[in-house]
Design goal:
single chain; 332 residues; two-stranded antiparallel sheet; 15 helices; 2 strands; globular
């Protein structure tokens, strides 16, 4: 299957989806529906951030909610305590979340797979406990209130349409950045590590540098989503950024199809809208939700768009050469 032809054929579809997304608030009058639309965009940003670490680099992370929370708390604390505007706190929050990603990326240098997942899970829990026991600084379980809404050219950010369009613009920008990462040397190095770490090292790729960088970018993107969330809801607490949220974001990427960039977007839309549609079946909502996930993993274990998974073509031949060389060495 020629991935280039598929991607070229999808350009017109991207344009149609973008037009629909832009016009959606015009035809939707319900405040609750607009709230869900904003949450969908936030989860798309979070899924795209995890896509860099998981889908492109194959670094299994269970602490994405911690990156999300880092961005939210840094932005909120700077706004409340120092009176900074949202646009000043946003880059600082993103950088702090990215730096946290660097820290969490260090275990990735020595661990892989399940062990890496456990390590990141531990980091996420440590972050939550710091928030809970942060005293007057984080206000513990009470959380932070009175977070100011953004201000820009006199726009009314209490209007959900305004907030929607701002986040839509950020989402589109982040999507195209993540979408084009696999088409850069940096992205090809990440995919080489994903496909075969030993072969990538043999090619001269600095494994440690690229792994840590993937976690940093993943954290930075999640930090942006966290800052927008904090100033949209105007209240955050440690309960907002728990282990379950990391699992939800992870499920979005896996169901959509990790390594496809487009897949996590579809997964985020599905798993944000589906629970809301099942609210009338409140007693069976989680049962139906879990059943859908199980069925999807049985029918499409690689995700909805798993067949579009972008690979590094020349790595296959290198892997075969390394294996054949190893067999010859054993025979000698």
């Amino acid at each position: 299957m020629d991935i280039k032809k598929i991607l070229k054929g999808n350009r017109s579809q991207f344009g149609i989806v973008l037009i629909v997304a832009f016009l959606l608030p015009v035809f939707v009058s319900s405040a609750s529906a607009k709230h869900i639309m904003i949450l969908v965009l936030l989860y798309i940003i979070l899924s795209l951030g995890l896509e860099v670490a998981l889908g492109i680099t194959d670094l299994f992370s269970l602490c994405h909610a911690a990156f999300y929370g880092m961005g939210a708390y840094v932005s909120a604390l700077l706004s409340i305590n120092l009176g900074w505007s949202f646009w000043a706190t946003l880059p600082v929050a993103a950088i702090c979340a990215g730096a946290f990603g660097l820290l969490i990326g260090l275990p990735a240098l020595r661990t892989n797979g399940d062990y890496l997942a456990i390590a990141t899970l531990g980091f996420g829990e440590i972050f939550r406990l710091i928030l809970v026991n942060g005293g007057d600084f984080t206000r513990g379980p009470r959380g932070l209130t009175g977070i100011a809404r953004p201000e820009l050219f006199g726009l009314d950010f209490t209007n959900k349409n305004v907030y929607y369009y701002i986040i839509l613009a950020v989402t589109v920008l982040i999507f195209f950045i993540v979408y084009n990462i696999p088409r850069t040397f940096f992205g090809r190095a990440l995919m080489a590590i994903r496909d075969d770490e030993d072969a990538a090292g043999f090619m001269g790729i600095q494994i440690s540098k690229y792994k840590v960088s993937a976690f940093a970018i993943s954290g930075l993107i999640a930090g942006i989503a966290g800052a927008f969330y904090a100033h949209y809801i105007c209240y955050i607490s440690p309960d907002t950024f728990v282990y379950n949220d990391s699992i939800t974001i992870l499920t979005m990427v896996l169901i959509g199809g990790g390594g496809t960039v487009i897949g996590p977007v579809i997964g985020a839309i599905m798993l944000t809208v589906l629970p809301e549609l099942l609210r009338s079946f409140v007693e069976y909502r989680m049962l139906i939700y879990g059943l859908v996930v199980v069925v999807m993993m049985q029918i499409r274990p690689m995700g909805i768009l798993g067949h579009l998974n972008i690979r590094v073509p020349y790595l296959e031949s290198l892997r075969k050469n390394l294996k054949s060389a190893g067999k010859k060495g054993e025979e000698v």
